[in-house]
C-alpha cells in the first residue's frame, strides 16, 4: 500500500494509507462518511498480485485492479474531472 501511495504522490495524486487498527468495515464506513471518492483496500492477495481492491462512491466495489491501471485511471479522472 505504501509503495502505491508513494507512486501516486509523485504524480500529484492525493493519497494516504490508513494504518489504524480499526476493522475493515469501519474503515470503509469512515471513508464513505468523509466522502472519499476512490478507496483502495490492500490485503495479502492484492500484495501478491500488485493490485488494489478498488471501491468508488459512484460505482461501489470494482474489484482488484493492477496498481498501474489504477494510477492511469485516476490520472484520467483527475484531468477530465470525471469518474474513476
Q: Which structural category fits the helices and strands?
A: alpha+beta
Count of β-strands:
3
What's the level 1 CATH class? Alpha Beta
What does the largest sheet look like? 3 strands, antiparallel
Per CATH, the architecture is 3-Layer(aba) Sandwich
In the residues, how many domains can be counted? 1
Overall average residue pLDDT: 94
Q: CATH fold name, please?
A: Rossmann fold
Specify the helix fraction band. Answer: 40-55%
Q: Helical stretch count?
A: 4
Going by CATH, the homologous superfamily would be Anticodon-binding domain
Query: Spans of 5+ residues with little confidence (pLDDT < 50)?
Result: none
Q: What is the alpha-carbon Rg in Å? A: 12 Å
Strand content: 15-25%
Main-sheet strand order equals 1-2-3
Distance between the termini: 19 Å
Instruction: Based on Cα principal axes, name the global outline.
Output: globular
Secondary-structure element order, N to C: HHEHEEH
Amino acid at each position: 500500500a505504501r509503495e502505491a501511495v508513494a507512486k501516486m504522490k509523485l504524480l500529484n495524486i492525493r493519497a494516504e494509507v490508513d494504518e489504524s487498527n480499526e476493522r475493515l468495515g469501519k474503515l470503509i464506513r469512515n471513508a464513505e462518511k468523509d466522502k472519499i471518492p476512490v478507496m483502495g483496500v490492500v490485503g495479502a492477495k492484492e500484495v501478491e498480485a500488485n493490485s488494489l481492491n478498488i471501491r468508488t462512491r459512484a460505482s461501489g466495489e470494482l474489484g482488484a485492479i493492477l496498481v498501474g491501471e489504477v494510477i492511469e485511471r485516476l490520472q484520467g479522472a483527475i484531468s477530465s474531472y470525471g469518474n474513476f
